[in-house]
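=== RUN LOG ===
request id: a7f3
mode: sequence -> structure
chains: 1
length: 353
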Amino acid sequence: MRREPLLTRPFLLAFAAYFLHSLSFNLFLHLPGFVRSIGADEVTIGLIYGATGLTAVLARPALGRAMDVYGRRGVFLAGGVLNAVICALYLTVHAPGSWLYTVRIIHGLAEAMLFTSLFAFAADIVPATRRIEGLAIFGISGMLPLSLGGLLGDLLLARWGFAQVFEAATLLAAVGLALTLPLADAPPAPGAEAAPPRGLLAAGRQRDLLPLWFIGTVFSTAVAAHFTFLKTYVMTVGFGSVGLFFTLYSLAAVGLRLVGASLPDRIGPKRALVPALAVLAAGLWLLATGRSAAAVAAAGVLCGLGHGYTFPILLGMVVSRARPAERGAALAIFTALYDLGSLIGSPVLGLVI
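=== RESULT ===
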């Protein structure tokens, strides 16, 4: 039996657009170094990231409603414009004050718009029988830039400075926006017209989605540790590399998805989810207890393998369980969990540090 195709023209355009936007976002893995250089400490860094997460969480109800009523296209176009503009505005930040908080808050909104809408678009166009596989492959567009963003940032900082990092992020965001211009919304999912959307709260209270909200929150809070503080960690302890950690992290996740993207669909997503979370926990433990650059690198591999399966499995389960007319709202809640993890984890872990 011939399988339905995944790599259609809309899929590839959306993949390339999100890849460039993600590469732009991941240049900001080096932002804690910039914030420290202008006079901030770890608590301030945590609060700045927490404010970004809070904004993105608060924006999700409107984003979910807009996607279910008006479609995905308007949201990802507006998010692309906002991303390009706000990356340029980092060039105007010179102190850890209110303007930095403002820029970070708006940047969080842009990221929320693009993350939610482009993954919702991908969920709309991949075949239902290959949903987790398709979302896992689409997710490579967000994982691979973890490696390239860290490395590109290292190169730019070694030769020039943070201004050039912000200029590169602006250019990448602008090209990503251009790639989304030809995309059109997919036709409504079967059953969407028969059951109109009930709203974000109804989707959030749906009984079979509640366990997914819990697991997603725990997962996102855990990964906030290395996304927010790995830069200042390696600066403090004097070993390890942000670029190498996230290179191995993303390559492990990408390799797993390329080789085994169809496995969760074949054996069942819950059977694949538990080992993925266990491997992620092992990676975080190694990062906490390791005392060498090799340990930091090995932790990157384990964390990447765990993340590589956990995210698309949870996302695919959300899409499968949500009502067709409420897919946008359900994905808005799910993607908000990652901002919620930053909102909870960044300030609390900053205080722990």
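=== NOTES ===
The chain is about 80% helix and 0% strand.
The two ends are 55 Å apart (CA to CA).
=== END ===
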